[in-house]
Amino acid sequence: MLVPSYDVSALKAELNSKGWRLTPQREKILNTFLNLIQGNHLSAEDLHMRLLEQGEKISLSTVYRSVKLMTRMGILRELELAEGHKHYELNQSQEHHHHLVCVQCNKTVEFEDVSINKHSIEQCQQQGFELIDCQLTITTICPEARLMGWPSALPHDWMCSRVKAQEEIKRKAQEKEKV
């Protein structure tokens, strides 16, 4: 199910129709996603931290259960990005969009490509499948990471390379503090 626009009353009706309640925690989670700048994605841990920073008393397990429920309902879209854990975004777009993800700094850029979407639909139809979601994540090294001299990553050392990049950022920050 793809829900193109959201408001709290529509979500409440949707939840009630399926036997769920719009708890204060679920409402705060939805509002957090509604207030994100388009193109931003949050992991459950990032979402939990944002809510705690806003003074909300909510457990990480409640956040996990809520994002899973909202994903099953089609309100959120679950993404597998370079960090190795799931991220979530509002499922607003009528078109499937894709992501360029830098393995060094985790910069993520969304893009739409009608030809990818069209080809995905055609392949599903030819094979008798029903398309539910189409996600293409292109693993990259962004221009900023290359300019900073961060090491290139080969498929087998993405994590190692990312750790080196994070260490380099910390080292440069410490050098600036000394000056």
Please supply descriptive tags for the structure shown above.
179 residues, alpha+beta, Arc Repressor Mutant, subunit A, Dna Ligase, domain 1, 2 domains, three-stranded mixed β-sheet, two-stranded antiparallel sheet, flat
Question: With helices defined by DSSP (H or I, 4 residues minimum), what is the helix count?
Answer: 7
Helix content: 40-55%
Kindly name the structural category: alpha+beta
Mean pLDDT: 80
CATH superfamily membership of the largest domain, which one? Answer: Winged helix-like DNA-binding domain superfamily/Winged helix DNA-binding domain
What is the fold named in CATH at topology level of the largest domain?
Arc Repressor Mutant, subunit A
**What is the spatial order of strands in the main beta sheet?**
4-3-5
| Distance from first to last alpha carbon | 55 Å
Global morphology:
flat
Number of strands: 5
Given this structure, which CATH class of the largest domain is correct? Mainly Alpha
Would you mind describing this structure in some detail?
By secondary structure, the protein is an alpha+beta fold. It has two domains: 1-94, Arc Repressor Mutant, subunit A; 95-179, Ferric-uptake regulator, C-terminal dimerisarion domain (Dna Ligase, domain 1, 2-Layer Sandwich). It is built from seven helices and five strands. A hairpin with a 5-residue loop joins strand 1 (76-80) and strand 2. The N and C termini lie far apart (55 Å). The mean pLDDT is 80.
